[in-house]
Design goal:
The relative contact order is 0.09. The protein is α+β, with helices and mostly antiparallel strands and 662 residues long. It contains ten helices and 40 strands. The chain starts with 7 loop residues before the first strand and ends with a strand. A hairpin with a 2-residue loop joins strand 14 (166-167) and strand 15 (170-171). The longest helix is centred in the middle third of the chain and has 22 residues, at 373-394. Among the domains are: 25-148, Immunoglobulin-like (Sandwich), CATH 2.60.40; 534-661, Sandwich (Jelly Rolls), CATH 2.60.120. The strands form 13 sheets. Strands 1-25-26-24-21 form a five-stranded mixed β-sheet, covered by helices on one side. The chain has a four-stranded mixed β-sheet with strand order 4-12-11-8, with no helix packed on it.
Length: 662
C-alpha cells in the first residue's frame, strides 16, 4: 500500500499570496552592467540583458509625474581607442513603464579627453582610462561609468549540471548525464570590489561577460533564474542562502570558461530543482496568460521533514515562508532528483497562485477511495501535472532533451524513487479501474484530468482553474471542476457522452440516474422491491430529489437506508405519508441525515492520525418506523439540506437504497 505524498501545508489568515511571493528576498548584487525595468516583473538590483521591451504610458510632463531614466547599460567596457558604443536611454514612470512621448536627453562626458558622447548617445573612446557620463532630462539624471582598457575582454562559457535519469524501477545507471543550467544568474566576482557584473545563461546554458577580467576574479553560478524570462525562481538552503557554485577564472587563449557541476559537487541537486521548476514555469506560460509570481524552493540535504508546499509562514514546517520544501532524506528517500515529485509540488504552487485550493492537507493513500473531496482534488491535480508537463516536453524535439526519464519510460507515469529503486510507480495510461476509482480517490481525479487534457488541451483545463474556481461559492473539488467545465463549454450530445464516459470509467457519475425523473410523488414513481437495493446518483443538490414508493402494512416495521455511498455522497432520507406529506409519528419526523456521523472523522491506523472518511456508511441515512396505516409510502432521498454541510463531502455522489420489513 503506497502512502501519497503529504505535500501541502495549509495556513490560514495569511496575506495575499501574490504579494507574499513577490516580496521574497532575492540575491542582490551591488553593481551591474545593464538595467531593464519591466512592469510586473520583480528584478534584481543589477541585470545584464540583451534587449528590453517596454509598455508605454503618456508623457511625464503631461501628467506631472516624476520620471526616471532606464539605460541599456550602467557600465560600458571598451578595449580600444576610437571604439564606440551606442548608449540608449528611455524615460520611465515609477512602475518602469516607458512614456509614449519621450523627452529630449542631454549627454555629458566629465572627461572628454578619455571619452566623448554625441547628441545621439554614441560613446567614443579617446584614450585609455575611465570616465563618467551623465544622462539627464526633465530633472532626472543617471551616471554611466565608461572603462577603456586593453584588459577588457569577452569571456564566454557554458554551465551544465549532472542530472540523474530515472525509469519505472528507479534511477538508471547512466553517468555523465549533463544538462544546461538555463536562465541562471551568473556573477563576476572580484576579491576587492565584490560583484562587478551580473549576467544570465541562455536556454542552452551559454553565457558571455564583457569587462575588465583577470585571473584574480571568479565566476559564481547561482540557483536563481532571470525574471525577464517571465518567471522568477530560486533554490535556497534552510538558512536562506541561495545555492551557488564558484569557479576561479583562468584566461585561456579562446577566452572560454566552461563550468560543469557534477553529482559529487553536492549543489547539483539544487540546479535540478531549478531546472524542473523552469520546465514547469515555461509550461504554465505556454498554456496560461498568468504572470508568474516568485517561487522559492528550500532544499536541505540531511533533513527528514518531508517534501511539501507551504502557502505561508509558520515557525515549525514553513519557517522560510511560501514555497516548496524539499526536506525528506529519510533513509534513501531524497527528492531533489525526483522530477515527478517536484512537478507535483509545483501543482500546489500553481493552484495557490493562479486558482484556488481549499484542501486542508493531511494523510492520504494513493489507493484511498474515501478522501476529503477537497484533498482528493488537490492531490489529484498534483498527481496529474507531471504527466501533463512531461507530455508537453516530449511533444517537441527541441524540448524533449529536457526530460530526465529513460526513453522507454511511459510519459504518464508518476515515479517516486527510494535510494536507487522506486517506491511509487503508477501509469495514468494503465491505471487499475478497480483500485483507483470515485471522486474521493486522488488518482481517479488525475486520470480524469489526463484524459481531458489529451482530448481538449491544457489551456481549457487551466482556464477552468484560473477563471472559474476563484469565484465559486462551493468548495473546490472535482464537482466544482465538472461544473466549471459544463459552464465554460456546454458540451452536448456525443461530446457530453464522451466526457461522462471518462468520469464513469472511474465510477464517478455526474449525471441523472436511470430512474429519473422521480423527484416527487406526482412524478413517474416506481415501487421498490423489498430487500432489493437499487443504485441512484445525486447530481444536482438543488433539484435532484429521488422519490421511491413502497407498500406498507399497518403495524408492520420497516427499515429504510442508503448504503454504499461513494464519490463523497452525503444523503438525507425522510419518509412521506401516502398523501405525500412528511411522515411524523407522535410528533417525531421520520427522517435521518447521518446514521453514523462519528465514523466520518475517525482514526486511521495507517496514517497514525484521524482523518475524514468519505466512505460507504459514515454519511449514510437510516430510519425505522411502524406504518400507522396500510398504503403506499415514499422514501425521499436528497443531498443533505444542512445549512453547513460537511465541506469535505459532496453535493453529488452515488448511493444504494434499500427498504426491508422486519
Amino acid at each position: 500500500m503506497n502512502i501519497g505524498i503529504n505535500s501541502k501545508i495549509i495556513l490560514r489568515n495569511n496575506n495575499d499570496l501574490t504579494r507574499r511571493l513577490k516580496n521574497r528576498p532575492r540575491l542582490g548584487v551591488s553593481r551591474g552592467s545593464f538595467i531593464c525595468l519591466l512592469k510586473q516583473f520583480f528584478l534584481l538590483s543589477s541585470l545584464f540583458l540583451a534587449a528590453c521591451s517596454y509598455e508605454f504610458t503618456d508623457s511625464a510632463s503631461s501628467k506631472g509625474q516624476v520620471l526616471s531614466i532606464s539605460l541599456n547599460s550602467e557600465t560600458v567596457y571598451l578595449s580600444e581607442v576610437d571604439s564606440q558604443y551606442d548608449l540608449d536611454a528611455v524615460a520611465v514612470d515609477a512602475d518602469g513603464v516607458a512614456y509614449l512621448e519621450q523627452p529630449v536627453f542631454e549627454w555629458q562626458s566629465h572627461a572628454e579627453d578619455i571619452v566623448q558622447i554625441d547628441s545621439d548617445g554614441v560613446i567614443t573612446a579617446k584614450a585609455m582610462g575611465q570616465a563618467t557620463i551623465t544622462v539627464s532630462t526633465e530633472g532626472a539624471s543617471v551616471d554611466v561609468l565608461v572603462i577603456i582598457s586593453d584588459e577588457v575582454l569577452t569571456l564566454q562559457g557554458t554551465v551544465r549540471y549532472e542530472d540523474r535519469e530515472y525509469y519505472s524501477g528507479g534511477f538508471t545507471s547512466r553517468t555523465n548525464y549533463f544538462k544546461a543550467v538555463r536562465f541562471a544568474q551568473i556573477l563576476l566576482m572580484d576579491p576587492q570590489d565584490g560583484v562587478i557584473q551580473t549576467v544570465f545563461s541562455d536556454a542552452n546554458g551559454n553565457f558571455s561577460i564583457t569587462g575588465v577580467i583577470n585571473n584574480q576574479q571568479e565566476i559564481i553560478v547561482t540557483a536563481v533564474t532571470n525574471s525577464a524570462e517571465g518567471f522568477a525562481l530560486d533554490v535556497q538552503d534552510r538558512s536562506g542562502d541561495v545555492f551557488a557554485v564558484t569557479k576561479a577564472i583562468s584566461i585561456s587563449q579562446d577566452n572560454r570558461l566552461d563550468i560543469d557541476i557534477p553529482l559529487s559537487n553536492g549543489a547539483s541537486g539544487a540546479f535540478n530543482i531549478l531546472d524542473v521548476f523552469t520546465n514547469a514555469a515555461q509550461f504554465t506560460l505556454e498554456f496560461s496568460d498568468e504572470t508568474l509570481v516568485t517561487l522559492s524552493a528550500f532544499w536541505q540535504p540531511g533533513n527528514k521533514d518531508g517534501t511539501y508546499f507551504c502557502d505561508g509562514f509558520n515557525s515549525f514546517y514553513c519557517n522560510q515562508g511560501s514555497g516548496v520544501y524539499i526536506y525528506n532524506s529519510i533513509g534513501g528517500d531524497t527528492d531533489e532528483y525526483d522530477d515527478d515529485v517536484l512537478y507535483h509540488e509545483y501543482g500546489h504552487y500553481f493552484t495557490e497562485a493562479f486558482s484556488r485550493d481549499d484542501s486542508q492537507g493531511g494523510c492520504h493513500l494513493l489507493s484511498s477511495r474515501d478522501l476529503d473531496l477537497r484533498l482528493s482534488w488537490s492531490e489529484g491535480w498534483g498527481d496529474f501535472l507531471p504527466a501533463a508537463i512531461k507530455s508537453w516536453l516530449a511533444s517537441d524535439p527541441t524540448r524533449a532533451g529536457l526530460l530526465s526519464t529513460e526513453i522507454n519510460t511511459p510519459i504518464a507515469a508518476y515515479i517516486d524513487t527510494y535510494g536507487t529503486g522506486s517506491q511509487i510507480f503508477v501509469d495514468l495510461d494503465n491505471l487499475s479501474v478497480s483500485r483507483y476509482a470515485t471522486a474521493a480517490n486522488e488518482l481517479a481525479v488525475a486520470k480524469v484530468l489526463w484524459v481531458l487534457s489529451q482530448r481538449y488541451g491544457m489551456r481549457n483545463l487551466i482556464g477552468v482553474l484560473s477563471n472559474y474556481f476563484p469565484q465559486v461559492a462551493t468548495p473546490v473539488n472535482l464537482e466544482a471542476f465538472w461544473d466549471g467545465w459544463m459552464s465554460s463549454f456546454s458540451p452536448l450530445g456525443s461530446e457530453l457522452s464522451l466526457i461522462q464516459a471518462t468520469f464513469n470509467e472511474r465510477s464517478i457519475y455526474y449525471q441523472l440516474d436511470e430512474y429519473e425523473e422521480d423527484n416527487s410523488t406526482t412524478s413517474s414513481v416506481r415501487t421498490a422491491v423489498l430487500g432489493q437495493a437499487e443504485t441512484h446518483y445525486l447530481y444536482n443538490s438543488q433539484t435532484d430529489v429521488d422519490v421511491i414508493a413502497f407498500n406498507a402494512q399497518q403495524g408492520a416495521n420497516y427499515n429504510l437506508e442508503t448504503l454504499n455511498l461513494s464519490s463523497g455522497a452525503d444523503t438525507f432520507l425522510r419518509v412521506l405519508a401516502p398523501n405525500g406529506a412528511p411522515l411524523s409519528i407522535a410528533g417525531v419526523a421520520i427522517e435521518n441525515d447521518d446514521d453514523n456521523v462519528n465514523a466520518y472523522y475517525a482514526y486511521d491506523s495507517v496514517c497514525g492520525s484521524s482523518r475524514v472518511h468519505n466512505n460507504g456508511s459514515a454519511l449514510s441515512s437510516k430510519v425505522s418506523f411502524s406504518a400507522p396505516t396500510t398504503g403506499t409510502y415514499y422514501a425521499e432521498i436528497s443531498t443533505t439540506p444542512d445549512n453547513e454541510p460537511y465541506l469535505s463531502a459532496g453535493r453529488y455522489g452515488t448511493y444504494d437504497f434499500k427498504v426491508t420489513q422486519n
